[in-house]
Amino acid sequence: YGGEVDAAFQIVDTLINTKDTIISYVKTKAISAGALIALAGNKLVMKKGTTIGDVAPLTYSEGGKPTMLGEKFQSPIRAKFRTLAKRNGYPEALTEAMVTQEMVVYEVKFPDTTMYLDSSGMAELTQGQKKTITSTKTVVAKGELLTMHDVEAQTFGFSTMSVDNIDEMLSKMGYSNYEVIRI
Predict the structure, then answer these.
(1) So what's the pLDDT on residue 141?
(2) What pLDDT score does 60 carry?
(3) CB neighbours of 52 closer than 8 A, spacing ≥ 6?
(4) According to the model, what pLDDT value does residue 181 have?
(5) HSE-up (13 A, CA, CB side) for residue 60
(6) What is the pLDDT at residue 158?
(7) For 47, left (φ over 0), alpha (ψ -120 to 50), or beta?
(8) What is the rounded CA–CA span in Å between residue 19 and residue 49?
(9) DSSP labels for 55-105?
(10) Tens digits of per-residue pLDDT, 11-51?
(11) In the sheet that 105-109 helps form, which strands lie side by side, from edge to edge?
(12) What are phi and psi of 33, to 5 degrees?
């Protein structure tokens, strides 16, 4: 769960500036800063039954009640998510929906592709594109933050696979002689 935004940004910047291939493996959950860090790897793999998402920046009152921080804090986090989405081919609208409760994201199916669009993306579709839509459904409703289980993360284009353990992941990726270094 979470952590300080500055620390998460430092970890993300270190990962994206590494020349080696980084496979992020979600062992239990990647929530808040954990999701940001997991998406910084070149590939994401999730253990079966795990979750990723909900990156809303929070503060706590003196009484311990959590309160979501406003746009000034959300904006740089969304920008970092857009950077990671572009770098790794993740759907931008869905990455931003992990941070912003006000977003609505739709799954828009065309005969040859599926897109995940917010209301701005929907408005930018040409009339020709709109005529070829085969189905539209709401994936993230207003007032929600996106949190996905492993199967959803794979369906939405984030995770490459769901596995029982690291050895299974590496075997499926074709690795046979490897050393796992735990940090």
Answers:
(1) 96
(2) 73
(3) 26, 29, 30, 31, 34, 35, 38, 39, 44, 46, 147, 148, 153, 158, 159
(4) 77
(5) 6
(6) 97
(7) beta
(8) 30
(9) ---EEE-TT--EEE--HHHHHHHHHHHHHHHHHHT--HHHHHHTT-TT--E
(10) 999 999 999 889 999 999 999 999 999 999 999 999 999 99
(11) 114-117, 105-109, 135-140
(12) -60, -30
Label the pairing between strands 23-26 and 43-47. Answer: parallel
Residues of the chain with pLDDT under 50: none
Tokens standing for residue 36? 């940001």
Joined together, the tokens standing for residue 92 give 């931008």
Hey, what are 46's tokens? 């999730």
Amino acid at 50: T
DSSP state of 5: H
- Indicate the Cα dihedral angle 29, 65, 97, 1, nearest 10°: -20
Max Cα-Cα span within the chain: 54
Report whether 150 contacts 162 (CB < 8 A).
yes
Half-sphere exposure of 135 (CA within 13 A, CB side): 5
Pick from 69, 72, 34, 73: nearest CA to 51: 34
What pLDDT does 1 receive?
Answer: 67
What is the bridge-based pairing of β-strands 66-68 and 105-109?
A: unpaired
Helix (H) or strand (E) holding 30: strand 29-31
And the tokens for 14? Answer: 């270190």
